[in-house]
């Protein structure tokens, strides 16, 4: 992480979730070495109202959620005020694309962990951004379009 405060924030989010009944499968504690290191952490059984489920973590924490139906998964994924990126892993590309369209997110990666590309627009929705940077659409922020209303 970039600062000690960043490590402390991650630790507070994980500790708070655990206090509410979440289970840590790996990681879950700040590393005691020098520097600002928080180990990769996998956690499940996170309460929907836990701060870890409601705030942007900006750290190596993967919260794993169980669901019964696609509708449940989509509802859970969209139940946040943020919407920068979503990740879908599936052996069924048509299903992944259909679900991706329903996710309230500015970017969707299917079967890959890295989605950023200089040729692609970067940005989110809701509280995760407005507009896009990069790619063909990124130039629009720098243009001054002129509108003509004409009766001829």
Structural features, described:
By secondary structure, the protein is of the alpha/beta class. The chain folds into 2 domains: 1-66, no CATH class; 83-152, no CATH class. It contains 4 helices and 7 strands; from the N terminus they run H-E-E-H-E-H-E-E-H-E-E. The chain has helices at 4-19, 51-54, 70-78, 93-102, and strands at residues 23-26, 41-44, 61-64, 82-83, 85-88, 107-110, 125-126. The strands form 3 sheets. The protein has a 3-stranded mixed β-sheet, with helices on one face. The chain is globular.
Morphology:
globular
**Sheet having the most strands:** 3 strands, mixed
The string of secondary-structure elements, in order, is: HEEHEHEEHEE
Overall structural domain count:
2
Q: How do the strands of the widest beta sheet line up side by side?
A: 1-2-3
**Average predicted local confidence, pLDDT:** 92
Terminal residue distance: 61 Å
As a percent range, the share of strand residues is: 15-25%
Q: Class by helix and strand content?
A: alpha/beta
Share in helix: 25-40%
Number of helices: 4
Instruction: Please give the number of β-strands.
Output: 7
Q: Rg, please?
A: 19 Å
| Unreliable residue runs | none
């Amino acid at each position: 992480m970039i600062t000690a405060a960043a490590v402390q924030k991650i630790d507070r989010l994980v500790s708070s979730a655990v206090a509410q009944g979440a289970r840590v499968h790996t990681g879950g504690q700040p590393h005691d070495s020098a520097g600002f290191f928080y180990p990769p952490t996998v956690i499940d059984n996170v309460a929907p109202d836990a701060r870890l489920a409601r705030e942007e973590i900006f750290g190596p924490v993967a919260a794993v959620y169980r669901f019964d139906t696609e509708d449940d998964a989509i509802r859970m994924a969209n139940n946040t005020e943020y919407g920068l990126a979503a990740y879908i892993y599936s052996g069924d590309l048509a299903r992944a694309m259909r679900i991706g369209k329903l996710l309230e997110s500015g970017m969707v990666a299917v079967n890959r962990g890295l989605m950023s590309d200089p040729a692609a627009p970067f940005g989110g929705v809701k509280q995760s951004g407005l507009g896009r940077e990069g790619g063909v659409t990124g130039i629009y922020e720098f243009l001054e379009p002129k509108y003509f209303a004409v009766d001829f």
